[in-house]
């Protein structure tokens, strides 16, 4: 268990950064002269026309997200292979090549079906 | 009370509380964020049980990937125009009773002592045999391979099992991911018929036009 | 493992490669030179050929061998794999019209069918719960997508949605059961589980795991009370896919059901048999009674398929040689009768969902007597009336149940078969005794071919079932001997 306490301390430090900056330090040192314009969401200087939720996202974002998940999971599979790369040797390399090749077919398909291009 | 148990109590409480908040929040974005908290707490619990790899997967895939999907879906549907319904459905009493029953059943059944050699399992899942290139004990100055038994090596152990014994399921998993990808494209992408695909330029032009019209109509 | 093991996987490798090629063929410019349908048929034939060649080259591969004991190429798996290949080939022929009428892309459709078939083949061959599970998931995921292939039809999307959500929940339940079994036994290999169980006397964690596993599997075969998805999905999915779900996908689920319970859990038979017997009885009663009032042929067949899941479960509950053979025979004859019916339904249909009401069959006899007669034969086979093949299957299952001391279950089954004749005859009455102007058959050659093959098979296997029974007996042998040995060791 002892080796995880480092992880816990690291997590606490990481968590403390946003908490400190957002909620503790900044409110103490900033000047607070709020007005209506300042509180509006910033939209490149142009007056905000609507709320963020007013428009539906295009389904294309979703497609990209699904592709992201698939390759995310692929990375997860790469990880334990990479740390045992030497022991698994050529056999492991071939195995992983097959795994990647199958996913590359999907990538090729997505590419040719113009899923990746944004028209 | 050991520190580990204290951490377990804290993290476990947060996990349960945030998962209850997931289903009771009215705003789907808040639900999604509490779900993220639940995932992270579960990852901590995995790590505490020695399953570092599963913990890492939990963070990488669930907290990283699945959450993105959730948020995209939330944005895909128009959350501001959801009907103002009660948080509790009309069947909540029945659902609660069933849930409680299943929970009691799980508690009664899933308890220590009924399983096979846990110690063996634990050592199998967290240690690997390894050959390391070190200086020999007998003749200093010469280097040989020495077999060592390395503990705290959950990811390595998972790797060895996954890429030797579990070769077939592993490769089928890639087919599974491929099908997931095809499925997303087939369902999500607007269908082009053979003729349309040939005249894709024209088709795209038409669509751009309609999008422009939609924008104009909305700004008006 | 060694490289020699690869030969056992050869059919699957060929199939997966072929399905991937089908996927990328249209985007590489091959679209115009060959037709997707014939490419798919060719792929299926090559796969079947390689399967036969492998089984001939390596006779009787034991369940213990292959890829760290993950994968077996025994007679049992070859029987089911050939059945699956046949089903998918027929579904390809049935899909022709559907794909031509609609604007949905053909190549992806066949590719997904290929991947679904690949999953089924891994299910049939898996002797390890990890292989079985991932095969099942590959099949399920492809089925969800195919069920929603009419993207612009609300019904189809709804079917895919319901199927996906409920399927995902059932997979989670199945996985939880598997994890509990792993917790108790320390292994996922079916033979090792059986060995580990021979030292376990009684264990509620294991029992809970087995029940969760059974729940997950019962969802996949659509047994009551896990059947609620069936009518909606069967109704909403494109008809060729409904044909696939009700035959191929179901037969694959039967295959793993049988293998898991006959190989891994025979030592625990006393504990789970009553649970499954109850599920079987419920399925027969719910399926048959609910089918009576249905107006849509697709829903009617969905409820009837729930009832058939109940009949097959009897064979698993019985846990004897007859039961095992019964499951195999029944899967076989059920496939022919059901695919035949779906081909007739597709003949009746003109666009989208039209031609799927019982009343649409009115007057079919006067318009096209042969197809009316074929439909009659298929319905008799589903009902289990003697000259057809369905009788042989029901005979085995009922006999097995009586032999195993489940007489009450056999009585329910007989009573419910009688009930089922009522709604099957409703279609027959509509075809022969009612006069309608709508029942016009506009069939393509492929549909006629399928219906003719199925009607011949249904009659031939009903009249001279000996070859089928011999084949099934030899296919089932390896599985049951193993099971019997383990069971004797425990008692």
Describe, in short, the structure shown.
Chain A has four helices and no strands. Chain A has 119 residues and is mainly alpha-helical.
Task: Give a topology summary.
The complex is a heterotrimer of chains A (119), B (220) and C (491).
Chain A: H1 2-29, H2 36-39, H3 59-83, H4 85-112
Chain B: H1 3-24, H2 28-48, H3 52-76, H4 92-109, H5 118-126, E1 128-135, E2 143-150, H6 154-163, H7 167-188, H8 194-198, H9 200-219
Antiparallel strand pairs in B: 1-2
Helix pairs in contact in B: 1-2, 2-3
Chain C: H1 6-24, H2 36-57, H3 75-101, H4 106-125, H5 129-147, H6 154-185, H7 190-197, H8 204-221, H9 229-236, H10 239-264, H11 269-292, H12 297-318, H13 321-348, H14 364-367, H15 369-383, H16 389-403, H17 407-432, H18 445-463, H19 466-490
Distance between the termini of chain B: 67 Å
Evaluate the radius of gyration of chain C.
Answer: 21 Å
Q: Give the overall shape of chain C, derived from the CA principal axes.
A: globular
What is the beta-strand fraction of chain C? Answer: under 5%
Helix fraction bin of chain B? 55-70%
Rg over alpha carbons of chain B: 26 Å
Annotation field: number of helices of chain C: 19
> Structural class of the helix and strand makeup of chain B?
mainly alpha
Low-confidence stretches of chain C: 482-491
